[in-house]
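Standup notes, structure subgroup. Blocker cleared on the pyridoxal-5'-phosphate input:
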Amino acid sequence: MRMMNISEIKKLRRDTALLYAGGHVEIEGSRPESPGVYMSTAFVLEDLDALLHAQQNGGYMYTRDYSPNHICLEELVAYLEKGDACVCTASGMAAIFCGLLSLVKGGDHVLANAALYGETYDLLENVLCDYGIETTFVDFNDPAAVEAAIRPNTKLFYTEIVANPLTVVVDIDRITETAHKHGAKVMVDNTFTPGIITPLSHGVDLVVHSLTKYINGHFDVTGGAIVTSRELIGRAKYFMTLFGSSLGPLDAWLALRGARTLDLRLAKQFDNAARLAEALSKHPKIQAVHHPSLPTHPQHELASRLFSGGYGAMLSFAMDNSREKANRFIRALRIIQFVPTLGGYKTTLSHPTSTSHKDLSEEVRLRMGIHDGLIRMSVGMENPDDLIADIFQALDAG
Ligand SMILES: Cc1ncc(COP(=O)(O)O)c(C=O)c1O
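Run returned:
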């Protein structure tokens, strides 16, 4: 039986395609149903002609460049993000670093949304500036401030679609239009929002993911991915190889397996998050709930326009501004665990003032609405009534 190629798979509906993309590995004429894990650092070449053939046709030679496990995963992630090409990396941060360097060089200016993942902020603010790449951070939902910050050498706009932890949604259509009008490219970290938006379809030039989060979704792989056009992928791949930031074959295999069930997981997680947001909004000890599904969310309408299938599975809520009370709440939970990650199949929580936003001054944090009583939850696939009961009993205990 002839196997479908990726062009045929792309014509199928998404729930079918997700099961078949990236499934093709052939070993001397036979085809395993599940690809093997190629734990080999290199591939044997018969002679110099075989080397030349591999060099010219993208044959396997050295695993830091690529291996069958990378090829499978990259095909699937490119499909998920509606991109032409993908390169996988050893972590989300490696994808962000290689992606950034593939789009800007010394002398260029980056315009970045003020609310970003902390280590991305650190990379732009404290590292790349030493190599001549300057960044201005500005609120991407303030069009006048964005326009005012553009310089003649602005080559890149950088953002996430939903900012952590207050779930502020960025109007990516307006950002892309502004950037392109000024001759700049747009790079998006879509880690929080797979399945509900494909930024490349909104004109974004390059997308990165931490595979560590939803795409793998099982708390057992650290990985990243860059998805973009055929034209832009070459330089991103060049840096991935040069910096030695390739994903291990076993991690690539696990991430591929995880990604097969992405949409099933997300559907349940999005539904749970919306139910939790609604239930938490009614609890007297909770002062604010941040989730784009809520009609009270400042960008609810924008989210409804941009997203399809849900509003994401990240939410946050504010209790009294007290570290002691937050601590008591965390200790009282029975199901939900305090884990410094997100996007897995189980619900996890984080305390932004102690983790993702600990390096910001208290003044800046308070201006952003982030205080000691703010809890961020990555909602998993549990029965929502168990989650709500767990949170309510912990609130009552505090
Ligand atoms: C939005 C976002 N981007 C990137 C990263 C970095 O991913 P990794 O830990 O896989 O390097 C994280 C990690 O939490 C994240 O939340």
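Discussed briefly. The pocket of pyridoxal-5'-phosphate is lined by residues 91-93, 117, 160, 189, 191-192, 210, 212, 222, 224 (CB under 6 Å).
Next: hand off to the docking folks.
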